[in-house]
From TrEMBL:
Residues 625-634 have a biased composition (Basic and acidic residues). GO terms for biological process: glycoprotein catabolic process. Belongs to the transglutaminase-like superfamily. PNGase family. This is 4Fe-4S ferredoxin-type domain-containing protein. InterPro entries: 4Fe4S_Fe-S-bd (IPR017896), Jacalin-like_lectin_dom (IPR001229), Jacalin-like_lectin_dom_sf (IPR036404), Papain-like_cys_pep_sf (IPR038765), PNGase (IPR050883), PUB-like_dom_sf (IPR036339), PUB_domain (IPR018997), Transglutaminase-like (IPR002931). Residues 135-165 form the 4Fe-4S ferredoxin-type domain. GO terms for cellular component: cytosol; nucleus. Keywords: Metal-binding, Zinc.
Length: 1264
């Protein structure tokens, strides 16, 4: 058998296989001599010069000075052991850290290391050492810091040695997770988001390959840690990643991964302290490596602010070491010495805890065995049978058996369980008032049993509740006598399981009472048909759903015992899929002690049984242990949050399933598909193309040059009969299929909707490359779909099929278009010969394409050229557009244009990761560049025209990649006039919006809005809001319309995505609340109340109007706009039976374009004194706000010019200025009783204009 050796040398992790030896206990080992020989063959490093550390058994191998040997012997450190052990028996691996030759083995060991701060030896490196805690109390807070032993003894007067449980509890409670616990991959466009709770790393693993981008996403929690990770390969359109995860609290000796990075290129510098994988994941002959940092799982760095007198007393001696990889031999020996001290300290403190907890555990086991004996009392069983409709249950079970494959016993248990839950027993959260019958009572206190009834019913305690109405007291005894429960028929899980287990024994079932020490009880029933015990929870009406508590409820399970009259069994494994996590919480007693105690108790219980019964029990026990140790799979449909109990009660106990602690872990292989766009065969696409060319599509107005409907308009078309036409079509298809991929040929097919191809083809391009092709050797042609068949060869084999997301707003319900692009990586170029397009000197040449810049690494500096477009005659460049980085920190690019000696720079900059629509034309009238529908650069004169040209696009940067798609060339003399309109249409209809800001209750989220109409570029505003809800909030829908400033021939409303549950869906046409927003009104804030789900939401607008829908329960939450000039464009929810997890998407608001806004600007310009201007504007806002809130109140409709506030605010104005400003507010001058007043008359204008004035004034005041 072979095992894997991972050897870390000079920051690179090398892997190789080696034969293993196996000892008598099945442990895998390898001899030192063999390891040294393998290292010599790999690195040419002689054994006498090798010094390495085994990270499995922490043995140091090498030639050492005598003082080091003496130090190792005194501290029980293993050096030069003859055999090294492999860690995982299932997947043997030996991990070695080979020290650099400069790590001398003759360096003296620091003699006083035990009496100085560990930072003096290890610097900022986390090490495994005894943990001491210091409490520093300040007036406003209490801070906790940890320190090493020397600092605890020298630098502080109050410290405590922490036991392992205290240490891990402190990590979980106070520390940010240090270790990566899970790694997954996501693929798609460059802005693909990470799943919830994951962080996407910025490096694209497939940066230089065809197909979508692939990113690693990491998750951190405080319970698990990755100990290894490896990038396997990209092959067959898949990326494979292997990793191994361990529990923090059970693996003190392991090293975990604290950070991950990706390196591009074999010669890339490895960051300090990182380990790089030796195997490269090839991405189109481009090396991609994974590198990571390691640290001890339970290690820490001594806090340098622990001293009572300020700075650490040892700070002057602190080492500058920053990484484990920098340790020399003496540091490793000291590391292993203090590691041994930590492990010894942990063992001793756990032994003290065990001694305290063992009597408690033994008492619990004896109590459980005593409880179940009462279920064997014949009188109790008879009393139970009197309440059970046995014959009816048997009949129902017989019917159920006939309709399924279950056994009669199992069907009877199921029927009995349903009856007990639905008809017999009831759940009590709090009892009704015994005086007035009021349902609402509140818990007051707990007392002991007092009445005879309570004592005879064996009540363990009595809960006292007070009525909210009459204030009378009601007693709720917690009875333990199952016969008493047959009459009361109510309680919580304790009463349910107690009574139900008795009834099971009365029915003749072998039943066990199951105790979960985390506060729940239930029953197990033995199935004679399946030869195993079935989980049976009466208060949940669940049979054989053992993972309910861990997966459904989210419980942190530990000890679970099943008690019967004959035995007690530890059944915790049955109720978990994550045994390692459960084991980490079983810290009361040693597992070996518990196993021995259970065996001793069972021997005592079974000592008086017959040999036959003992044999039966033994057979069952062997079968059950085999079942318990089998891997359990998470069930798909039989687990859920807790059913019994009120929502509030379940939420307090965290058993509603909203906080599930279940996490998959272990050694996994993660495989991510690289090509998410389905590909088809050439034969299949060719067949469809032949049909399109011969018959045509369903659209008679199709603009596809290959469609029959457009081809028949050709003047030569009538001269061909059907046979000739079919032959010509087949010849044409054969020619193109020989050089173009299937994906490229698909671009020649007709589209069923108005996509980007339809828009561009409508302008009759001379050459049009959609760039949806695949790079499938030897086919490397880019198909031309203009009908001219000027296909272009991808000579430099630029990567293809890179996602370039487009949207179509023609249909608001449509998904984003599946669109790809060509990636121009550094040094690559695309050459297009234009001679075949027959461009004449009098014609203009137009170029249109979509473009996006992506960065490989931060390497291109300011003024560096990253992309050029050149028109050439031979070797002479006639015209050039040069995209140059102008702001390297912001990753911004501008365009410089040149025609002969004339230069011009664009007025706008482009930003990385943002798609743009570019238009470029030149003719005898000059050269024009436009971006997203705006002209940004112009060279007015073109000295000379040429009839033969070529076009070259080149990636000239070192670390910048250009994604290019839908490149079209036009030769129409009038196209120069249409260039702006085409660029604007492409931008408005197809360019993905600038990402809206996603904000949830917990802050910013890395999530993309899924509603295309919410895009700022859609030129739509929210016109109406439709809400559904009564007791709870059930649904929402936004209705959009084109902006007031935009002329639209289609005034029809555009409905956004509906988010609603089944209740809202059923009432889709009848919303509970429907609000029409006023002109220039938008939503700025969402608030509401929520508990386990949303109870209500309230939306607030910039006009300070609010509208609410839903109930009144839950806790308050609020999501506000990040800035004053941002609005909510869309809202998404997690939809189930209820709505939850609200996320609001915010986008920028344009400054209002209206005559009132321009008039206010003019009025403000007339006030040159800033302080007086602010005073006047504030008063104007106050008067108009009063009217908005109270439009019919006479005192707000009339302003007396002589009141002091008016004089203070407007006294500095002349008469004309005063009249103009108050008329803008809607107030007109009048005289009454010899005094001047300004009066507002209702009905003189539309109501929305009042709100609009307030908004404009508030906007202006904020600018002041």
């Amino acid at each position: 058998m072979n095992g894997r050796i991972l050897c870390i040398y000079r920051q690179i992790a090398y892997q190789f296989d080696a034969p293993l030896d196996e000892d008598v206990n099945g442990n895998h080992q390898i001899s030192i001599e063999l390891v040294q020989n393998l290292i010599f063959s790999l690195f040419s490093l002689p054994p006498e010069n090798q010094i390495f550390v085994s990270l499995n058994d922490f043995c140091v191998i090498g030639s050492f000075h005598e003082n080091m040997k003496l130090f190792a012997a005194e501290n029980a450190i293993s050096i030069n052991a003859p055999l090294l052990s492999f860690g995982n028996i299932a997947q043997p691996e030996l991990r070695l850290l080979l020290l650099d030759e400069t790590a001398s083995s003759s360096d003296p060991i620091c003699s006083d290391y035990a009496n100085i701060c560990t930072r003096c030896v290890f610097g900022d490196v986390s090490v495994l050492q005894p943990v001491y805690r210091s409490m520093k109390i300040t007036s406003d807070s209490q801070s906790i810091c940890v320190m090493c032993r020397a600092c605890a003894q020298s630098c502080t007067t109050a410290s405590k040695l922490l036991d392992p449980l205290e240490w891990h509890h402190m990590i979980a409670k106070n520390s940010h997770p240090s270790f990566i616990s899970s790694v997954i991959t996501v693929s798609g466009d460059s802005d693909v988001t990470a799943p919830e709770s994951y962080l996407k790393l910025p490096w694209d693993l497939n940066i230089m390959g065809s197909g979508p981008s692939v990113f690693l996403c990491v998750q951190r929690d405080k319970r698990r840690a990755l100990t290894s990770i490896d990038l396997v390969e990209i092959s067959n359109c898949q990326i494979q990643l292997t990793s191994e995860v361990v529990l923090l609290c059970r693996n003190n000796d392991a090293f975990g991964i604290t950070d991950l990075r990706v390196l591009y290129g074999k010669d890339a510098e490895i960051p300090k302290g990182y380990i790089r994988s030796s195997t490269s994941m090839m991405s189109d002959n481009f090396d991609v490596y994974l590198c990571y940092q390691l640290a001890p799982l339970s290690g820490f760095v001594c806090n340098n602010e622990h001293s009572d007198i300020g700075e650490c007393l040892f700070s002057s001696r602190f080492s500058t070491t920053r990484s484990l990889l920098d340790f020399d031999v003496s540091q490793w020996l000291i590391f292993l010495s203090i590691r041994a001290a930590r492990l010894k300290s942990d063992r001793e403190m756990m032994q003290i805890r065990y001694k305290e907890k063992e009597p408690e555990m033994l008492s619990r086991l004896h109590a459980g065995l005593g409880r179940v004996l009462q279920y064997e009392d014949p009188s109790m069983q008879q009393a139970a049978r009197m309440h059970i409709p046995i014959e009816r249950l048997k009949r129902d079970a017989a019917l159920a058996v006939s309709d399924s494959n279950s056994s009669m016993d199992e069907a009877l248990v199921r029927q009995f369980l349903h009856w007990f839950k639905a008809e017999f027993f009831t759940w009590t959260n709090q009892p009704k008032c015994s005086s007035c019958g009021n349902e609402k009572t509140r818990y007051l206190r707990t007392e002991g049993p007092q009445s005879d009834d309570e004592i005879q019913g064996n009540a363990s305690r009595v809960e006292i509740y007070e009525c909210d109405v009459c204030h009378g007291l009601t007693r709720f005894p917690r009875y333990n006598n199952p016969v008493k429960l047959l009459s009361t028929r109510t309680g919580r899980c304790g009463e349910w399981a107690n009574c139900f287990t008795l009834c099971c024994r009365a029915m003749g079932f072998d039943a066990r009472y199951v105790l979960d020490v985390t506060d729940h009880v239930w029953t197990e029933v033995y199935s004679t048909a399946q030869y195993r015990w079935l989980h049976c929870d009466s208060c949940e009406d669940q049979l054989d759903a053992p993972l309910t508590y861990e997966v459904g409820w989210g419980k942190n399970l530990s000890y679970i015992f099943a008690f019967s009259k004959d035995q007690v069994v530890d059944v915790a494994r049955r109720y978990t899929k994550d045994w390692e996590s459960v084991l980490s919480r079983r810290v009361d007693v040693p597992e070996e002690w518990l196993e021995q105690v259970l065996e001793r108790l069972n021997v005592e219980k079974q000592s008086r049984l017959s040999a036959c019964r003992i044999a039966t029990l033994k057979e069952r026990h062997v079968s059950e242990q085999r079942e318990l140790h089998e891997e359990r799979k998470k069930p798909s449909g039989n687990v859920q949050g807790r059913v019994s109990g009120s929502a509030e009660w379940k939420r307090v106990r965290e058993e509603d399933g909203l906080k599930s602690t279940f996490v998959d872990h272990g050694c996994v292989k993660l495989i991510s598909r690289l090509d998410s766009i389905k590909t088809v065969s050439v034969q299949h696409v060719a067949k469809e193309l032949c049909q399109v060319m011969t018959i045509g599509c369903k659209n008679p107005d199709c603009v596809n040059p290959y469609c029959f409907h457009l081809r028949k308009q050709n003047s030569d078309f009538a001269s061909y009969d059907a046979t000739d036409m079919l032959v010509r079509n087949l010849q044409s298809i054969s020619a193109v299929s020989g050089v173009v991929s299937a994906a490229g040929i698909s671009s020649l097919l007709c589209s069923e909707k108005s996509d980007i191809r339809s828009v561009i083809l409508r302008h009759s391009p001379s050459l049009y490359l959609p760039m949806q092709d695949e790079l499938v050797p030897p086919k490397c042609m880019l198909v031309d779909i203009s009908g001219k068949e000027n296909h272009v060869e991808n000579i430099d084999r630029c990567p293809m099929r890179k996602p370039f997301r487009l949207y179509s707003l023609a249909d608001s319900d449509s998904d984003s278009e599946r669109n790809c692009s060509l990636a121009m990586v550094p040094g690559k170029k695309l050459q297009i010969a234009l001679s075949g397009t027959q461009i004449e000197s009098s014609q203009s040449i137009g170029l249109s394409f979509l473009l996006r810049f992506e960065q490989l690494l931060l390497g291109d500096t300011e003024n560096a050229s990253v992309f050029t477009i050149s028109f050439q005659q031979g070797e002479n460049v006639i015209a050039l557009a040069d995209f140059v980085i102008v702001k390297s920190s912001e990753r911004a690019v501008a365009v410089n244009m040149r025609m002969k000696s004339e230069w011009c720079s664009a007025k706008q900059v482009l930003h990385f990761h943002e798609a743009i629509a570019v238009g470029l034309s030149f003719s005898k009238n000059g050269m024009i560049l436009c971006q997203n529908g705006e002209s940004v650069a112009t060279i007015p004169a073109f000295p000379q025209c040429f009839s033969v040209l070529s076009l070259t696009l080149c990636a000239t940067g070192k670390q910048t990649i250009i994604l290019l798609t839908h490149l079209a060339i036009f030769t129409s003399p009038t196209f120069e006039e249409k260039l702006l309109s085409l660029s604007a249409e492409l931008y408005r209809r197809f360019i993905p919006w600038k990402s809206l800001k996603a904000i949830s209750v917990n802050g910013a989220r890395a999530k993309l809005c899924q509603d295309p109409i919410a895009s700022v570029q859609s030129s739509c505003r929210i016109a109406r809001v439709r809400l559904w809800g009564e007791t709870f909030f059930n649904g929402i829908e936004f209705v959009y319309e084109r902006d007031q400033t935009e002329t639209s021939t289609d005034p029809a409303p555009i409905y956004g995505t509906f988010f609603g549950n089944s209740i809202a869906s059923a009432l889709r046409e009848i919303p509970t609340v429907e609000v029409t927003l006023m002109p220039f009104e938008f939503i700025t804030e969402m608030s509401g109340h929520k508990g386990a789900w949303l109870d209500s939401i309230t939306l607030r607008t910039n006009f300070k109007r609010t509208f609410m829908c839903g109930g009144s329960g839950g806790d308050f939450f609020k999501i506000s706009s990040p800035s004053f000039m941002e609005e909510i464009r869309s809202i998404e929810f997690a939809v189930g039976d209820h709505l939850n997890d609200p996320i609001a998407f915010f986008g920028p608001v344009k400054a209002p374009e209206h005559a009132m806004a321009r008039e206010l600007d003019d009025l403000c310009r007339s006030l040159t004194d800033a302080s007086k201007r602010a005073l006047t504007l504030t008063a104007m806002q106050r008067y108009v706000e009063n009217l908005c809130g109270n439009p019919t109140e006479p005192k707000y409709q009339r302003i007396r010019a002589g009141n002091p506030y008016f004089v203070e605010s407007f006294g500095h104005l002349n008469s004309l200025q005063l009249k103009l400003k108050l008329r803008w507010c809607g107030f007109y001058e009048e005289e009454s009783d010899g005094q001047v007043y300004y009066h507002w008359k209702e009905g003189k204008e539309e109501r929305w204009m009042l709100y609009f004035r307030v908004y404009l004034l508030e906007l202006r005041n904020r600018c002041e």
